[in-house]
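Q: Second attempt. The first request was missing the SMILES, so the protein and zinc ion are both included now.
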Amino acid sequence: MSSLLIKNCDWAVTQNEKREVLRNASILIRDGEIKEIGRPATGAADAEIDARGKIALPGLINVHTHLSMTLFRGFADDMQLQEWLERKIWPLEAKLTGEACYYGALLGSAEMILSGTTSFVDMYFHMEDVAKAIVESGLRGFLAYGTIDLFDEARARSERQNVEKFFDFVTKLGNSRIRFALGPHAPYTCSPEILQWSKDFAEKHEAILQIHIAETRREQADFQKQHGTRVVEYLDKIGVLSKNMLAAHCVWLTKGEVGLLAKAGVRVAHCPVSNMKLASGGVAPLPEMLDAGIAVGLGTDGAASNNSLDMFETMKICALLHKAHRWDPTVLNAQKVLDLATIGGARALGAEHDIGSIEVGKRADIILVNARTPRMMPIYGKDTVVSDLVYSASSANVDTTIVDGSVLMENREIRSLGVDEILSKTQEMASQLASG
Ligand SMILES: [Zn+2]
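A: Got both inputs this time. The predicted holo structure:
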């Protein structure tokens, strides 16, 4: 039972229904929940943060990453996707241990806390070790074991067991910040049977199901050659599109496929930086997806293809990409981009009642961004604060990160993790991976 008062915020960007931006706001948190917004009486809390010169906003939500891939940051860049995967990433992944994934997840956690991300969606291996790291970090994670059966029945059987084992692990853990998710990798690595099994499992346990869809032109073309149908049409035909599905990328879609996703209530994780870096060759039809009413969030993808987990950078690049692509500076404004990284991300996770905005009754996932810094000044008023956050701010301006009412970082000092040890250990793990 503890309480925290964040007082004197220069601005509070609530991201509530009316997208209110409040001046000189205070936020009272009790037992991890936002209790009051406005000017609560001072002295009513066990601890206080003086947020003068700072902007409060909901913690950012990264809806697609592979956290432990921070270990591969900078290992292989500037390559074709397939060559990159087959020659560089997959051989290294085959050598991953639980210990390596644990330290990779801690490294990613430290990076997210420093850059204002409070919730993330992960799909990878050695997920029990990743979960252990997330419990320590204090972040909120939707964690999935990455399932790949390569159309092989024996492999499918052991993959189903791995998923069930991880489900039991998360259930026993009983930590409200750690949510179980399904993670069939992609329609080209997973049989229709395991996709259908994953869908049923997700529905039964009310979990999200992450999957990679239509990331590159080559994938879409190969798929069409092999199956005689486009990827989303195929998923529709085998009956696996559902409201639990969170589809990453969705770059190569027709309008018809966007319609199919919308009709089924599928949510989308848009990963503009990764798509640009790997030169997927196209730009995801984000305006069309939003017009169709699809819940879209923003993701970084793994640090091997980004190479950071920086959601401030992702917001800005997302806005610039769509403006440049459509020759239209109005196609995606700052408010819409901030929505994708906050309340939109929460909707994409079906978690909009808990997170994604600063509202009474929601979990206290809040960050403070330092406004009194040369790259943020001047601020003209409440109508420009959101623009300032999307176009001017950098993740280095994040001063304080709070999840579930716990202060994970203040004055850019991470409290929940020992960063020095994590840095040494991850360097050690990387050396082992590269040498062995
Ligand atoms: Zn991915």
